[in-house]
């Protein structure tokens, strides 16, 4: 059953003879409801969300339960504009400002579900020989 199957239905029947008149049942209204999204999870590559400065970080969102077309948005801490949309967020050449908590939000038009936050840490290597 799909959401577009909602509507008014009735049954029509007639007796065993083709001359018998058609009889129609009273109409009934059928409403198909979507299943709310749940269980949204977030994974990172490299695992744990620890990435070296200037490397690539890939975050992936998964939604195990829910119906309808799903759209995604990514959120970093309290920042304004989302850093991306889609099932995956790829950050190439990460910098200091990419550290922080990330969340994936999934929406099917009827419900919104959020992943638990994932803490991303950008690791900066110090070259002790150079005194930097």
UniProtKB/TrEMBL annotation:
Family matches, as Gene3D superfamilies = Immunoglobulins (2.60.40.10)
Q: Which InterPro entries match?
A: Ig-like_dom (IPR007110), Ig-like_dom_sf (IPR036179), Ig-like_fold (IPR013783), Ig_sub (IPR003599)
Name all Ig-like domain ranges. 27-121
A Pfam family this chain is assigned to: Ig_3
The protein depicted here goes by the name FCRL1 protein
UniProt lists the gene as Fcrl1
């Amino acid at each position: 059953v799909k959401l577009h199957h909602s509507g008014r239905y009735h049954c029509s029947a007639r007796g065993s003879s083709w001359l018998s008149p058609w009889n129609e049942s009273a109409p009934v209204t059928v409403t198909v409801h979507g299943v709310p999204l749940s269980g949204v999870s977030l994974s990172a590559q490299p695992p744990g969300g620890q990435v070296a400065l200037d490397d690539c970080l890939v975050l992936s969102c998964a939604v195990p339960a829910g119906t309808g077309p799903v759209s995604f948005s990514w959120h970093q801490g309290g920042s304004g504009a989302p850093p991306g949309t889609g099932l995956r967020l790829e950050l190439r050449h990460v910098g200091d400002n990419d550290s922080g908590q990330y969340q994936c939000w999934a929406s099917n038009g009827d419900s919104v579900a959020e992943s638990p936050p994932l803490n991303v840490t950008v690791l900066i290597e110090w070259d002790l020989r150079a005194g930097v």
